[in-house]
């Protein structure tokens, strides 16, 4: 019955029928470690283990437990107990991994050597969290080293007394009294008795109680209950009633000094009474020592050791580590792209009169927020404007930059080669178009509701109906009978026109045929006036729309020639155009820069172009006031930070970006840089009809007025001539009188 053998292979009852143990096995320790990871939301680790049965067995069961609980063992490193050194380069192995949780599965004899190597490689706190399988004295390390050791955890088996559960205190005190009676010089304080000593006592007590129970069942009490086969060799002798004795051990139950003791026929481990404690290396009152902070049992899992228990994590932090690599203190070479207003290059003069380049905008502000939150050291460089967006990922692949931050859209093509962070800006594409001039003047716009053929037909019908009125009404209608031919024709035309437009005239038809013809005119009036009014309103509404397209669907349907569509080469808008519009035909007008895009629009080289929504809104509101946006956004996506594939610090960056987004800082930046407006507001589109639309109608009315006046003067020509002659005579008389 063992008090210290934790090898998981020894749990196999079939392989080891005569073996029992009171110490928890490594199987239980692996399960406790898994639950510890789940408690703190850690997902992966690196295991360092010694190259013997203890190390191999431990790493095996921990790996199996991790796999069963969807956790990851990122790497396994060996400490060679023969050479007393790591087989791998510890610094390279740990710093190149994305996990920052290290499980050190070595005996206490070797733990100090591994920690010394870790100190030399600078892979302890505050960047790494170490979990040891045994507590060791760390007094040999200096003060500076102790600061890096703070936050180390140890996980060890313990007894029920540590967890304040039931133990046999009567038996324990009796054992202590015997110890103090016979060897008082070796007895430590009861609080300093090693837990393995209690496991050893329970192992011994289990043997004693089992033998006692076994002997009490012996039928023939005259003979000894312990019988062995006779053999001259010690190793050839065996217990005659061993099976009965094993049954006795399997069925015995008692409360030991480490907790309840009970076994069964299936495994060699005790059924209950497996406990663990986590101790945390802390600094208090200028002293560093291990402090119990968590306790574990099979029934309750991990719980706080006491109400006052506080874990001090690496770096003297009270916040549990995420388990991933942190950017704190890491130097980052950051490439950024000049793109107004994401990154604006300005020149400022310092106090010494020197002109310096200063970067402002959404991206520099975002870098400041991330730096303050994460603690990295940025080295910001402006990327050459000759580099297209499609080539930015290659700069990160070639390690020219650690990350690139800008208005870079996350696409499937780019994601295949590089990684992106969480979105830093929600984006879509917008159609950019130059503002069109006001509606062109059309003198005869009021005639557009009807075609020329229909107008000619209406004129013909008017003439035809007038002739019919003359024929049908001249004899019966008193007002027409006395008129001359010319007046008769004019009055008939007037009658037909008045009824055709729904106005009516000052005389009425007298014949049945005339009334029937008038009814026909009324019907024509009803349909023609209603149709004209509806079409005129529609034409006037359409004329209010100054743009030849209303959105992306019009471009897809071909309302604009493809060679009149400007596309920035090497951007997400090019990918969209090729995939969604041209079926991968490069029939567009290629553009190399945004400046070229807007100049091409203004110079009428292209009609439209595509641009990211945020930049397009800023440009049209602040820079190019005679350029406008058409329709709603399309091809919705997001901008992300370009990072290398499987970047160590990807999770840390993502968590902090999400934190900024949830706290509203990204929205504040967006309002700061994208809701600025310097262009004057364009006149609001009015629904009222302008003079220019109906100018031709007023010109015709003016001509009619002039004709009416001329007609009036023509009819009054005799009177005017007479008046003129009389005036002339009067003037001559006055002249003669004045002469005399």
From TrEMBL:
It comes from the Eukaryota. It comes from Rotaria sordida. This is Ionotropic glutamate receptor C-terminal domain-containing protein. The lineage of its organism: Eukaryota, Metazoa, Spiralia, Gnathifera, Rotifera. Residues 331-676 form the Ionotropic glutamate receptor C-terminal domain. The keyword Ion transport applies. SUPFAM superfamilies: Periplasmic binding protein-like I, Periplasmic binding protein-like II. Keywords: Glycoprotein, Ion channel, Ion transport, Ligand-gated ion channel, Membrane, Postsynaptic cell membrane, Receptor, Synapse, Transmembrane, Transmembrane helix, Transport. It is found in: Membrane; Postsynaptic cell membrane. The chain crosses the membrane at residues 454-472, 484-505, 517-537, 693-714.
């Amino acid at each position: 019955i063992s008090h210290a053998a934790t090898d998981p292979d020894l749990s196999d009852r079939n392989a080891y029928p005569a073996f029992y143990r009171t110490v928890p096995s490594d199987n239980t320790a692996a399960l406790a470690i898994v639950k510890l990871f789940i408690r703190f939301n850690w997902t992966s680790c690196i295991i360092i283990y010694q190259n013997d049965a203890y190390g191999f067995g431990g790493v095996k069961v921990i790996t199996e437990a991790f796999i069963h609980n969807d956790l990851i063992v990122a790497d396994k490193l060996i400490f060679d107990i023969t050479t007393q050194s790591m087989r791998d380069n510890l610094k390279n192995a740990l710093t190149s991994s994305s996990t920052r949780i290290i499980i050190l599965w070595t005996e206490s004899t070797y733990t100090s050597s591994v920690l010394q190597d870790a100190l030399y490689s600078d892979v302890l706190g505050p960047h790494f969290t170490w979990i040891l399988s045994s507590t060791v004295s760390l007094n040999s390390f200096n003060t500076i080293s102790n600061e890096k050791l703070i936050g180390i955890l140890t996980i060890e088996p313990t007894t029920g007394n540590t967890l304040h559960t039931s133990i046999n205190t009567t038996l324990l005190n009796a054992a202590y009294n015997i110890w103090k009676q016979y060897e008082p010089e070796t007895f430590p304080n009861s609080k300093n008795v090693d837990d393995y000593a209690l496991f050893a006592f329970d192992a011994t007590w289990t043997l004693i109680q089992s033998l006692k129970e076994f002997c009490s069942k012996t039928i023939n009490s005259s003979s000894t209950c312990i019988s062995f086969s006779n053999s001259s060799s010690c190793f050839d002798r065996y217990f005659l009633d061993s099976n009965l004795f094993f049954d006795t051990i399997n069925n015995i139950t008692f409360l030991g000094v480490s907790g309840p003791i009970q076994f069964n026929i299936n495994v060699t481990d005790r059924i209950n009474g497996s406990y663990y404690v986590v101790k945390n290396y802390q600094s208090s009152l200028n002293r560093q020592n291990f402090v119990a902070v968590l306790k574990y049992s099979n029934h309750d899992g991990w719980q706080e050791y006491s109400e006052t228990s506080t874990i001090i994590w690496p770096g003297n932090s009270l916040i549990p580590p995420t388990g991933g690599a942190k950017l704190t203190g890491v130097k980052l070479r950051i490439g950024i792209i000049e793109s107004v207003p994401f990154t604006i290059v300005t020149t400022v003069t310092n106090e010494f009169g020197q002109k310096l380049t200063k970067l402002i905008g959404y991206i520099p502000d975002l870098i400041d927020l991330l730096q303050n939150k994460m603690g990295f050291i940025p080295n910001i460089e402006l990327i050459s404007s000759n580099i297209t967006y499609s080539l930015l990922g290659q700069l990160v692949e070639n390690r020219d930059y650690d990350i690139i931050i800008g208005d870079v859209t996350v696409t499937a093509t780019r994601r295949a080669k590089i990684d992106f962070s969480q979105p830093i800006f929600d984006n879509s594409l917008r159609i950019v178009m130059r503002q069109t001039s006001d509606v062109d003047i059309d003198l005869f716009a009021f005639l557009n509701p009807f075609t020329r053929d229909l107008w000619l037909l209406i004129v013909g019908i008017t003439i035809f109906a007038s002739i019919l009125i003359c024929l049908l009404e001249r004899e019966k209608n008193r007002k027409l009978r006395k008129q001359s031919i010319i007046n008769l024709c004019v009055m008939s035309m007037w009658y037909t026109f008045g009824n055709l437009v729904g106005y009516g005239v000052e005389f009425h038809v007298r014949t049945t045929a005339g009334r029937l013809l008038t009814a026909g005119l009324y019907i024509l009036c009803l349909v023609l006036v209603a149709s004209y009014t509806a079409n005129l309103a529609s034409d006037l509404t359409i004329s209010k729309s100054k743009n030849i397209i209303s959105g992306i669907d019009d471009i897809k349907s071909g309302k604009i020639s493809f060679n009149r569509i400007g596309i920035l080469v090497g951007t997400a808008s090019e990918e969209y155009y090729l995939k969604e519009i041209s079926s991968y035909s490069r029939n567009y007008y290629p553009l190399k820069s945004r400046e070229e895009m807007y100049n091409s629009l203004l110079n009428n080289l292209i009609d439209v172009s595509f641009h990211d929504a945020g930049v397009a809104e800023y440009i049209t509101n602040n820079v190019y006031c005679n350029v406008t946006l058409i329709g709603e956004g399309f091809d919705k996506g997001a901008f992300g930070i370009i990072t290398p594939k499987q970047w160590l610090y990807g999770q840390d960056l993502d968590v902090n970006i999400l934190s900024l987004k949830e706290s509203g800082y990204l929205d504040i930046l967006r309002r700061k840089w994208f809701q600025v407006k310097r262009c004057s507001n364009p006149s609001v589109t009015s629904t009222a009809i302008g003079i220019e639309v109906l100018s031709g109608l007023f010109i015709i009315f003016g001509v009619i007025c002039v004709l009416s006046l001329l007609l009036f003067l023509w009819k009054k020509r005799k009177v005017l001539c007479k008046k003129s002659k009389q005036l002339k005579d009067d003037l001559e008389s006055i002249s003669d009188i004045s002469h005399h």
